[in-house]
Write a structure and sequence with these properties.
alpha+beta; Arc Repressor Mutant, subunit A; Chorismate lyase; 2 domains; two-stranded antiparallel sheet; 8 helices
């Protein structure tokens, strides 16, 4: 869908560099749903004219939002509000790859995991979950366990923890019947866009639940990645613990120069 509505002029008393004010206003419009996920933004001239800024200033703001994966540029088609798709999940949020066995072998390429839900339960947040989600200990949460397989082999046990207040009416059936990724479900059904994630990784022995889900021996050395998914305003929306069997797979992070 193409949005042709021009934004209103910036407030005259805005703080900070002009392009930062433009960026904040575009973020506000996206968060408010004025420009919805998947929408094509109006032309540069329409947006710049509406805000009362130059196209150069607008482009600098848009460049940062593209770098932060809020917007997406498509050559010859325009600029879009980022939509969570399988490809976006694979390239921005899933970092597990099969290990290259021999030097000089051609890259195998990224593989989208087969995801199987093996647990869906309601409970009360413990201290760690409450701190991660910015809720109170004892608040209602949803705990979802997924088994992720690559090339038919179970590799990752994902434990997702969600604040029940945020994801009202999320049932196991609704979760299982989603047509795309979990983040697409958040965005499509709840208007919550995951912009980025903060992660911490540590080595640990496999617990009994992970051992059962991945079919490994309890105590096997595994990699545990704790992720907090963030939306607008750095608000946490999901706490996820990914336990990875690294016997034949690596956690791969691609670093790029920051703009």
């Amino acid at each position: 869908m193409k949005s042709r509505t021009a934004p209103a002029p910036l407030a005259e008393d805005g703080a900070g560099p002009l392009y930062r004010q433009v960026k904040r206003e575009l973020l506000r419009l996206v968060e408010a749903g004025r420009y919805a996920p998947g929408d094509t933004l109006p032309s540069e001239s329409v947006i710049a004219g509406g805000l009362g800024v130059s196209i150069g200033t607008l482009r600098k703001a848009v460049d940062e939002l593209v770098h932060e994966h809020v917007l997406v540029r498509r050559q010859g088609k325009g600029t879009f509000v980022a939509l969570h798709t399988d490809d976006r999940f694979l390239f921005h949020f899933f970092h597990v790859e099969a290990r290259e066995e021999a030097e000089g072998e051609p890259p195998r390429g990224r593989e989208y995991p087969q995801v199987e839900c093996v647990g869906f339960a309601r409970g009360r947040a413990d201290d760690i979950e409450a701190q991660a989600l910015h809720i109170r200990a004892g608040d209602a949460v949803l705990r979802i366990d997924n088994r992720l397989s690559l090339a038919g082999r179970p590799v990752v046990h994902d434990r997702l923890v969600l604040a029940a207040q945020t994801f009202r009416n999320l049932t196991e059936k609704r979760f299982l019947d989603r047509p795309s990724t979990v983040y697409n479900l958040y965005q499509r059904d709840y208007g919550i866009t995951v912009l980025r994630a903060r992660e911490r990784a540590r080595a640990c022995p496999a617990g009994s639940a992970t051992a059962r889900i991945l079919g490994v021996a309890p105590g096997l050395p595994v990699l545990e990645v704790h992720r907090i998914a963030l939306t607008f305003g750095e608000k946490p929306v999901e706490y996820r613990v990914s336990t990875i069997n690294t016997a034949g797979h690596d956690y791969v992070s691609v670093l790029a120069k920051q703009h």
